Each structure stands twice: as C-alpha cells, then as structure tokens.
Amino acid sequence: EQAFDWLAARQHSTGRFDEVGPVFHRDMQGGLRQGIALTSFVLIALLEQPKVATKHRAAIEKGIDYVTQTLGSIEDSYDLAIATYALLLQKHSSGERFLEKLIGQSTVQQNGTERFWARDAHGIETTAYGLLSFVLAEKYVDGTSIMRWLVKQRYTPGSFPRTQDTFVGLKALTKLAEKISPSRNDYSVQLRHAGRKEEFRVTSQDIGTLQHAQQGVDETAQLELHVAGIGFGLLQVVYEYGVDLRNFTAQFVLELQKSVTNANHQLQLEVCSSFTPQLSDG
C-alpha cells in the first residue's frame, strides 16, 4: 500500500508520471513521446487493484485525462497499445477510439490468421498489450489471430525473449484462454512416430498443466497428431537440431582489443567484426 501511495504522490500536476530515478527502460519513460507509456503503466498498476483504485481515484482520473488528450499525437504503437489497455481497464469512453487507432497500426499476415504490432525490440510486449485490449473489448475471436502470432515468438520452455515480454505475453495469453476456454475440457492428443505412440488426456483439472513428449527423429521422419474431444488448449511442436562445428568454416571474424583505462571496475573493448561470404563452386 505504501508503494502505491508513493506512486500517486509522484504524479505531475498535468496528470503524467515521470521517472524520478535512473532510466533503464527508456521506451517506458517515453522521452519526447510525452511519457505516455510510463503514465499508462502506472495507471494500470493502480487500476488492477480495486482497493487501490478506490483510494487513488483522483490520481487515476487525472492520469486518464492526460492520456486521452494525447490521442491525436500518439504515433508510437507501444505508447498506443499500453494507453489503450489502461483506458479499457478503466472503462473510459475513449477506449474504443484508442482501440480503433491501435487496430489500424497492426500488421495482418498469413491470410488474416495472424496479427501483430511491429515495434523494434518491443514488438512482443506491444502485441501482448494489444491482445489484453482485445480481451477487455470482448473481441475474443479477433484476439485469436494475435494469440497465434504471440505463440510463435515463444522459446522452447514457453518464455519470451525478454522478461517484460514474458510477463505481459503470458498474462495476455492467459486472459484470452480464460475467456474462450469452455467450462468443460475433455479431449485426447495422440502422437505417432516410427511405430511409437504416446497419448495425453486433458480434462478441466489440467488447465495450466504442461504435458510434453520428446522423440528423436531423422530427416525423413513423419509425426502424426490426432486430437479428439472438446475443449481448449495449446499444442506446440518444437523441432530442434544440432550442428557439428568441428569441420565447419566460420563465415565471420570477431576481434576484440582491450583498451587501457584508469578505472578499476571498467572494461573498455574495441570490437571489430567482418563477414566472410561463402564462395560458390561456379
């Protein structure tokens, strides 16, 4: 509770929030982008706790007013995505207008089956906030296209490249699953490969439980999947392979040179890299 009090006390008279310490997440701070992302992030933290939202209602309303006034000037998809989620979380009337603009900035591919927001290294986080906004707007069917794109960005263990990507990404996928998953889950998944068979049974008690199978395959192998029953789940096939680098000619050169500095706890390096193209036999 003291942390929320501290946050509310740091609000600017205009309604925005600015970082008061060292800035590590510069995209969240916003810089010349009017601090929209950080302001929206703080609003989300306050709004997601009902008791806190009631106590700091004045700070929330002031922050929401600041964000809504920036609609015409927001061009950055990261700012727009997190601001849209904050407004929809507060059930503000401007939420729909922000969502329309956000949808207009999205990219649709794979014949309309995937939707995402390209935003440099923050594309996954931006897309996750987009999915959270779709869930609050009850656009569950449309949200499945965002879900498909997000699932493809995950690493093998289920996480995403960055910590913030993982936190927001898994939160968004979970929120959508809660809405579109039926009350009854009862289905089986059967895997067949090289004469071997493995079968998994999924019931309503297994929501959130990870079941997996590992099989070795060769270049010509086929993997058959059979799913039968009713319910909702996420099925992912991951193919991993190794490369023998002992007799492999590297196609790049990396050279490091240490520079002399007077600091005891500082390492300064000069890094030089070059690419060596592979020449064809012709």
TrEMBL record:
Domain called TEP1 second CUB: residue spans: 181-241
Keywords recorded for this protein, A-Z: Signal, Thioester bond
Top-level division of the source organism's lineage: Eukaryota
Residues in Alpha-macroglobulin-like TED domain copies: 2-175
SUPFAM superfamilies tied to this protein: Terpenoid cyclases/Protein prenyltransferases (SSF48239)
GO cellular component: extracellular space
Keyword Hydrolase: no
Protein name per UniProt: Thioester protein 4
Species, as recorded: Anopheles coluzzii
